[in-house]
Amino acid sequence: MNATWQTFLANQGAQFSDDNAVQFSEDARQDVIRAAQGTIVVPMIHLGAIRASGEDACAFLHNLFSNDVKKLGPNEAQFTSFNSPKGRMLASIVLWREAGDYLLTLSADIHAAMLKKLSMYILRSKVRLMDDGGDSALIGLAGPQAGAALEAAGLGIPGAELATASGLATVVRLDDSRFIVSAPISEAPNLWAKFVAAGAQPAGSAAWQWLDIRAGQPVVTQPVQEEFVVQMVNYDLIGGVSFNKGCYPGQEIVARTHYLGKLKKRMYRIHADVPALAAGTDLYAPDFGDQSAGKVVSAAPSPDGGFDALVVLQTASADGGKATIGAPDGPSVAFVPLPYALP
After folding, report:
1. In degrees rounded to 5, what are phi and psi of residue 251?
2. Distance between CA 103 and CA 111 in Å, rounded?
């Protein structure tokens, strides 16, 4: 993270931890309560950004990612993924265009490793990949007054989900009330101040992660790298994979899963009354006995106590309606509907 931006945030009350997280309350749950009750502004330090530039940038990314980068318009964003040759997700990505460049956002704990790995594919391509964190800051806005806060800061409001608006900063609309702002470091403090003046309350990483969970949007972090094929985390349901494009790493496995058989695992939303919950934790179900039936993809404190999470689980186990955390006799989970239908 840029030192100037970090110093500014610290002066606004931000408390940083070693796991790429920030909070503005003594208890991260209080930040989540702010997200549940009103409009929040979040420094997105739990994400890292990679900028791809050069005349071959589009083709380079298209040949590596699960979605159709060639169809990405100048004012559009998309979910996509970078997968292993075995079809397992190395990174979940939100991708959009900024002028002639492409900006990729992914979990901060895998950012450096993915930048290095992607760079190994460049060879003779006319493309440059760079860490964008020194030049730009990512700011999240969410809640009923998020659009008004954007207007108060002089920024455009994209007219549709996964659309973008350009200007002093790039605004990416994720859904009806959630936006990512990619701003030059020189403009970020001023924009932050205007968002707060417009009524947005500062909140931390847990608040945004809880909103991701509520939206059913997975984020692949280091503990769950190479655990899931894209369909297991519902990427086919939120537009994160194209089945009509050419080859990319893992494409054969993804296509075979799509065309040749019923998927045995899907992603579900759950609540558990536990004091802590982390990505990578195993889930168990009666029909699988002592064998793990799934894993936690992401988790965050619930505003009502306990934790909310996205989990990948055997569909048969989910149909049975019973699962536990950490052990066959561990705490039970309650299934909560996703905002989209599962097939």
Report:
1. -60, -40
2. 13
pLDDT in tens, 268-282: 999 999 999 999 999
Q: In the block, which residue shows the tokens 């990948």?
A: 312
Model pTM score = 0.96
CB 61 within 8 A of CB 52: yes
CA angle 81, 167, 142 (to 5 degrees): 60
Strand partners, 335: 270
Q: Which of 239, 310, 264, 300 is nearest to 93 (CA)?
A: 239
What is the model's pLDDT at position 246? Answer: 86
pLDDT, residue 190, reads 97
| DSSP structure class, residue 163 | B
* Residue 15 structure tokens: 């408390």
Residue 136: exposed, middle, or buried by beta-carbon count in 10 A (0-12, 13-18, 19+)?
A: buried
Those residues of the chain that have pLDDT short of 70 are: none
Output the six-digit token pair for 23. Answer: 């909070």
Whole-number pLDDT of residue 259: 85
94-130 burial, b at 16+ Cβ within 10 Å, e below that, comes to: bbbbbeeebbbbbbbbbbeebbeebeeeeeeeebebe
Residue 99 has what pLDDT?
85
Amino acid 34 reads R
**177 with 146: CB under 8 angstroms?**
yes
d(CA 246, CA 243): 8
Structure-block tokens of residue 54: 């050069």
| Identity of the residue numbered 59 | A
